[in-house]
Amino acid sequence: MFNNLSEKLDQALHTLKGHGKINEVNVAETLKEVRRALLDADVNFKIAKQFTNTVKDKAMGQDVLTTLNPGQLMVKIVKDELTELMGGDTVGINLGGSPTVILMSGLQGSGKTTFSGKLANFLKTKKTKQVLLVGCDVYRPAAINQLQVVGEQIGVEVYAEEGNQNPVEISQNAIKHAKANGKNVVIIDTAGRLAVDEEMMTEISNIHKAVNPNETLFVVDSMTGQDAVNTAKAFNDVLNFDGVVLTKLDGDTRGGAALSIKSVVNKPIKFIGTGEKMDAIDVFHPDRMADRILG
Ligand code: GDP
């Protein structure tokens, strides 16, 4: 995860770590390298620039030039700023409501169906919840099938309506079904498309209005970097979602999405997906991720 970024940041900070004394010139050089590492990780130029400016201000404010171990202090400042960049505090999901309704949004292939299953499994095992999964992709029967396979795998009921082409109706019926059958969490998996389009946005927005979810999650493939951020913005403009799920962090992802999304949409990353299996889900902790990045 973020190997290239870790390596480059380590290299950038290493120069300072080795020096007993540092000066404004090598701080500036270090920060230039830090900025380059962020840009290589596909972090937006403005965000990278702002990041290094903040680090510089903090470093100067803390008298990094005269402190006993300036290298370590710089590492700490960079780590703190990375944590802030990724959202600062850990933010959980809202499990209020009776039942709790969780709506998944995102492009096709982002990992919505897989994550719906993972979240159902997570809530079932960790929080002893009775979960109902809902298949709303009325365009691709294969998608409903996939959800059914996932449901069987984790022992969670899947609600679908064969032949019904109206996802709003299906979602509403599913909530009624949940109430009648003692389920206290309803996870609605929706149809995605390969790119943002008006039809998809109208549909998800209609479902959103009809079910008034306690939690709307935007699922995005972290491998898509800057595109992930642009897609997040498009979905947030329509849904004003509550949180982000970054999937495929087990792959060779550069880190740009994780580092930029919070600044752009001002919504926390709540979960990450780290594999195809049902247990490959983690609550996102910005501080732990920053620790991991800086080793
Ligand atoms: P959807 O179209 O948004 O519902 O996406 P899917 O859930 O079908 O996922 C698309 C592909 O990505 C599938 O092959 C999944 O197995 C895979 N996938 C989903 N999440 C992850 C993840 O966290 N890591 C990896 N490596 N693959 C994932």
From TrEMBL:
Q: What is its EC number?
A: 3.6.5.4
A GO biological process of this protein is: SRP-dependent cotranslational protein targeting to membrane
Q: Residues in domain SRP54-type proteins GTP-binding?
A: 268-281
**Binding residue positions for GTP:** 106-113, 189-193, 247-250
Provide this UniProt record's keywords sorted from A to Z: Coiled coil, Cytoplasm, GTP-binding, Hydrolase, Nucleotide-binding, Ribonucleoprotein, RNA-binding, Signal recognition particle
**Catalytic activity entry:** GTP + H2O = GDP + phosphate + H(+)
Localization terms from the record: Cytoplasm
Q: Which GO terms describe its molecular function?
A: 7S RNA binding; GTP binding; GTPase activity
Q: Which domain of life is it from?
A: Bacteria
Q: Determine if Metal-binding is one of this entry's keywords.
A: no
Q: Which GO terms describe its cellular component?
A: signal recognition particle
The reply to whether Hydrolase figures as a keyword in the UniProt entry is yes
> What does it do?
Involved in targeting and insertion of nascent membrane proteins into the cytoplasmic membrane. Binds to the hydrophobic signal sequence of the ribosome-nascent chain (RNC) as it emerges from the ribosomes. The SRP-RNC complex is then targeted to the cytoplasmic membrane where it interacts with the SRP receptor FtsY.
Know anything about its domains from the record? Composed of three domains: the N-terminal N domain, which is responsible for interactions with the ribosome, the central G domain, which binds GTP, and the C-terminal M domain, which binds the RNA and the signal sequence of the RNC.
Write out the similarity annotation.
Belongs to the GTP-binding SRP family. SRP54 subfamily.
Tell me the subunit arrangement: Part of the signal recognition particle protein translocation system, which is composed of SRP and FtsY.
What is the protein name given in its UniProt record?
Answer: Signal recognition particle protein
